[in-house]
């Protein structure tokens, strides 16, 4: 499908759009302009419009723009002829037509040409000379063969389409220019062209979030390649039509058959006709904004597609691949990419400054604006245009209020995907938008899994491009989607306590300070440190916050507090509470009157707890996180948490005792004791201890070893002071499903055989400076980290069929052998079989050589070849 933009451009614009602003600038004129731009038609539009007659003469800039345009579209409306300036535009445009072959397209929107004539003839506002000149111009334009009346079309969409087709055929002569908002288009066009050229793909779906440029890119591709097909059709904004698709079906049939008269009167009859047409015609069809499977069926049927045809669909829903999965259509998917930093800067600057470079003094403010938009083209355009021509102080004010002002202009673009969700998925989206962006997917699934299938819901949000999952399995959401979710919650009530979720720190603070809770609140978040940094008045207030407001929140399920000291009783906390995230918890022990029976996760990181002792049986608790609690000495009675899955005690430097019933918990999959130095130091009788047999390839000795729960999947014991003696104090004999093991920066010299750990994928021994040998590693190991193991000499695997993918060994100055990878030996000791036909070595006799391929292993080890 070879095609491309022209090498030379005679005119700066394809179209000059003349219209009366006060009447149509916010509706049809904007609609028409947007459609022109999306079609790759370079359009000049006066952003200020003509909305008064203060300037009675055509200004220089407007006159130049008309001269630099191939054509003019004159949008006649009811009040067009009441403006002297509009009529001067008309006269000047017709002068260009007579002198420079300037193409003119008059279009009448919701008005008859005879009505406009009367306005000009009977107006008493103008001089006779002007009236005569304007009447002459109007008579000339009314006789034009190209006149288009809106009354001739059944819908505005059909009307706009006909206008664009007329311009495309009469003005551009098939030449297509990238619209301004397709900065960075070249790579995308090449990728799509590659997909379209595949003989086994008639169907291409372009998927992405709202505002990412799907429609604009599809229109550009359509204009580039439509002349390669017998027939073509572009149906725009199908999603707005819902299931009322009869008119769109007729438009598609008209485009593909060439007939202007389609007499079919039912959707089913049109489906049958369309199935026949798409099977027989070599056509290029673009279906923009498909939101339901039924829309595909109504427009294409369920039969075969001509193998020479190409059908392009844009959608925010990646589920489209399942909609066509049972059909015989051969399918390719293209995922829209948001703009990189450079292209985003170019696009934003073009709309904000009129060039691709920010003005002096605006660079930092521009960075702030780019961070907000996160590469979304439509957001960059809207924000850039709204800031154009404003002072630095106005920019600062506007950017401070982005969530309220600019976002409201973009809200309708995004909310369509949200509105298509079921009730439970809407709640999931709002919970993530308000509280869980950046959190691990499994963590969120455990906390929210009581009300709905979170895994299924997350898949739905991913397909709708409302959510993403990073490589490390964390939930990420485009900032605009997050703001949309939060806007939806804000619309529930003007009064924060009457909303379902309260996450703004200032609102949550006032809420607790006044002691006014409500039954509506399901989630509450407050970060006092952040609030004090942002609001000096709060920082200097001595107001103590109490638990009074929380007593009224019977439906509270999510409580996320950071460094919030609350005074008062805990006995009236909601029994529905599932997440208690209280960083910097200020008490020494868990209050006995705090009900925890339904909690799924407790996160008391950086607390002042000296002991953790469950006040009751915690049947629902899956996650316990006490990391960074520097005063914590003991963790008691873990048998009261029988379903615990994750225990995180990292950086609890004072911890000396963990209840031995930890070893009896059978659901734990993650145990993190990083930097719990005192827990293992000189342990003789308490912490994690039982008398077991530890074996290391030689002698069975009874030692005081640490007993771990099983079966674990992830075990973190970095910086734990392990192995001050020459034996390894941990038995991993029962850890058959262990996948991740971190023993970095410990002091042991030897490790037992891990060949039985058949599921082990990652082993991290970074900075184990005394470790000498690492033998019989499981062949399933995918990642091995041994950097700065300065005493390590040899690494072997259980078999030669290992699948190592990541390997780091910086600073291993003693390492001479990694089985299956490298072995360093004096040349004189090489076996004859190894030497083979290496007679060429004589050439290098007495020369210094180093092993090529791993500088880390051979640095400083150059030797002379001995032959």
Q: Which strand order do you get reading across the main beta sheet?
A: 13-14-16-18-19-21-23-25-28-29-30-32-34
Distance between the termini: 63 Å
Category from helices, strands and their pairing: alpha/beta
Shape: elongated
Number of domains: 6
**Any guess at the CATH architecture of the largest domain?**
3-Layer(aba) Sandwich
The CATH topology of the largest domain turns out to be Rossmann fold
Q: Percent of residues in beta strands?
A: 15-25%
Tally of individual helices: 28
> Main sheet?
13 strands, parallel
Mean pLDDT: 81
What is the tally of beta strands?
38
List the uncertain runs: 3-9, 50-55, 683-705, 834-845, 847-853, 862-867
Pfam families: NB-ARC, TIR, WHD_ROQ1
Keywords: Leucine-rich repeat, Plant defense, Repeat
GO biological process, one term: signal transduction
InterPro entries: Apaf_helical, Disease_R_plants, Leu-rich_rpt, LRR_dom_sf, NB-ARC, P-loop_NTPase, TIR_dom, Toll_tir_struct_dom_sf
Could you walk me through the main structural features you see in this protein, from its secondary elements to its overall organization?
- It contains 28 helices and 38 strands.
- The strands form nine sheets. A 13-stranded parallel β-sheet has the order 13-14-16-18-19-21-23-25-28-29-30-32-34. A five-stranded parallel β-sheet has the order 2-1-3-4-5, with helices on both faces. It has a five-stranded parallel β-sheet with strand order 7-8-9-6-10, sandwiched between helices.
- The protein starts with 12 loop residues before the first strand and ends with a strand.
- It has six domains: 13-172, Rossmann fold (3-Layer(aba) Sandwich); 180-335, Rossmann fold, CATH 3.40.50.300; 341-402; 416-488, Arc Repressor Mutant, subunit A, CATH 1.10.10.10; 669-823, no CATH class; 827-864, no CATH class.
- The model is unreliable at 3-9, 50-55, 683-705, 834-845, 847-853 and 862-867 (pLDDT under 50).
- With 867 residues, the chain is of the alpha/beta class.
- The longest helix is centred in the N-terminal third of the chain and has 17 residues, at 84-100.
- 32% of the residues lie in helices and 16% in strands.
């Amino acid at each position: 499908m070879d095609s491309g933009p022209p090498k030379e451009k005679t005119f700066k614009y394809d179209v000059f759009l003349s219209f009366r602003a006060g009447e149509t600038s916010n509706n049809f004129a904007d609609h028409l302009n947007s459609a022109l731009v999306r079609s790759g038609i370079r359009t000049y539009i006066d952003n200020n419009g003509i909305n008064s007659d203060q300037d009675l003469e055509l200004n220089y800039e407007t006159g130049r723009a008309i001269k630099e345009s191939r054509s003019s579209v004159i949008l006649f409306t009811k009040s067009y002829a009441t403006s002297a300036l509009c009529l001067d535009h008309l006269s000047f445009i017709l002068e260009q037509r007579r002198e420079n072959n300037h193409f003119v397209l008059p279009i009448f929107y919701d008005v008859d040409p005879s009505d406009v004539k009367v306005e000009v003839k009977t107006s008493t506002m103008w001089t006779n000379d002007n009236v005569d000149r304007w009447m002459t111009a109007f008579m000339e334009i009314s006789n034009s063969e190209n006149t288009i009346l809106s009354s001739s079309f059944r819908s505005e969409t059909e009307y706009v389409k006909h206008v664009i087709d007329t311009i495309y055929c009469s003005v551009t002569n098939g030449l297509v220019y990238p619209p301004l908002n397709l900065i960075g288009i070249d790579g995308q066009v090449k990728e799509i062209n590659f997909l379209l050229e595949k003989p086994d793909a008639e169907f291409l779906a372009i998927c992405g979030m709202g505002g990412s440029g799907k429609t604009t890119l599809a229109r550009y591709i359509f204009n580039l390649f439509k002349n390669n097909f017998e027939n073509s059709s572009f149906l725009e904004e199908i999603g707005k039509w819902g299931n009322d698709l009869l008119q769109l079906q007729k438009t598609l049939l008209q485009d593909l058959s060439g007939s202007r008269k389609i007499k079919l009167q039912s959707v089913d009859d049109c489906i049958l006709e369309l199935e026949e047409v798409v099977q027989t015609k070599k056509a290029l069809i673009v279906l923009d904004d498909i939101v339901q499977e039924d829309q595909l069926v109504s427009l294409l049927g369920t039969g075969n597609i001509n193998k020479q045809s190409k059908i392009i669909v844009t959608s925010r829903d990646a589920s489209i691949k399942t909609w066509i999965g049972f059909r015989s259509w051969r399918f390719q998917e293209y995922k829209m990419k948001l703009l990189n930093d450079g292209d985003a800067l170019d696009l934003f600057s073009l709309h904000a400054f009129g060039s691709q470079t920010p003005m002096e003094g605006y660079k930092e403010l521009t960075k702030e604006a780019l961070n907000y938009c996160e590469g979304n083209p439509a957001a960059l355009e809207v924000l850039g245009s709204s800031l154009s021509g404003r002072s630095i102080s106005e920019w600062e004010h506007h950017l401070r209020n982005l969530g309220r002002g600019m976002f409201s202009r973009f809200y309708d673009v995004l909310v369509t995907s949200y509105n298509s969700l079921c009730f439970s998925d809407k709640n999931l989206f709002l919970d993530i938008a308000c509280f869980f962006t950046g959190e691990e997917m499994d963590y969120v699934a455990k906390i929210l899994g009581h009300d709905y299938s979170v895994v299924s819901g997350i898949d739905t949000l991913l397909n709708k491009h409302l959510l993403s999952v990073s490589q490390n399995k964390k939930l990420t959401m485009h900032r605009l989607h997050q703001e949309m979710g939060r806007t939806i919650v804000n619309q529930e009530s003007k009064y924060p306590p009457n909303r379902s979720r309260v996450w703004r720190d200032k609102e949550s603070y006032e809420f607790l300070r006044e002691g006014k809770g409500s039954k509506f609140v399901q989630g509450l978040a407050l970060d006092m440190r952040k609030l004090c940094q942002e609001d000096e008045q709060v920082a200097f207030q001595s107001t103590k916050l109490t638990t009074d407001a929380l007593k009224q929140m019977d439906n509270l399920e999510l409580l996320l507090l950071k460094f919030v000291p609350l005074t008062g009783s805990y006995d009236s906390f909601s029994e529905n509470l599932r997440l208690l995230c209280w960083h910097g918890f200020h008490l020494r022990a868990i209050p006995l009157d705090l009900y925890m029976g339904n909690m799924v996760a407790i996160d008391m990181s950086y607390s002042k707890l000296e002991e953790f002792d469950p006040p009751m049986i915690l049947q629902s608790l899956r996650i316990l996180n006490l990391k960074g609690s520097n005063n914590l000495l003991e963790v008691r009675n873990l048998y009261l948490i029988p379903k615990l899955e994750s225990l995180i005690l990292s950086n609890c430097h004072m911890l000396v005792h963990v209840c031995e019933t930890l070893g009896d918990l059978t659901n734990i999959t993650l145990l993190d004791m990083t930097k719990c130095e005192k827990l293992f130091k000189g342990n003789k009788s308490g912490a994690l201890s039982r008398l077991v047999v530890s074996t290391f390839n030689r002698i069975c000795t009874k030692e005081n070893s640490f007993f771990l729960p099983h079966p674990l999947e992830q075990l973190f014991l970095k910086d734990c002071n392990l192995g001050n003696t020459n034996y390894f104090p941990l038995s991993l004999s029962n850890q058959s499903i262990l996948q991740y093991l971190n023993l970095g920066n410990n002091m042991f010299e030897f490790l037992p055989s891990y060949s039985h750990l058949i599921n082990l994928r990652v082993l991290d021994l970074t900075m184990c400076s005394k470790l000498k040998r690492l033998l019989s590693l499981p062949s399933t190991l995918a990642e091995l980290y041994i950097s700065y193991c300065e005493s390590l000499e040899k690494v072997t695997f259980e078999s030669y069929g290992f699948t190592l993918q990541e390997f780091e060994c910086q600073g291993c100055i003693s390492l001479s052998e990694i089985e299956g990878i490298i072995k360093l030996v004096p040349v004189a000791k090489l076996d004859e079989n190894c030497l083979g036909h290496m007679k060429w070595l004589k050439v290098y006799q007495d020369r210094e050589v180093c092993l090529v391929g791993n500088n880390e292993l051979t640095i400083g080890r150059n030797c002379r070849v001995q032959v």
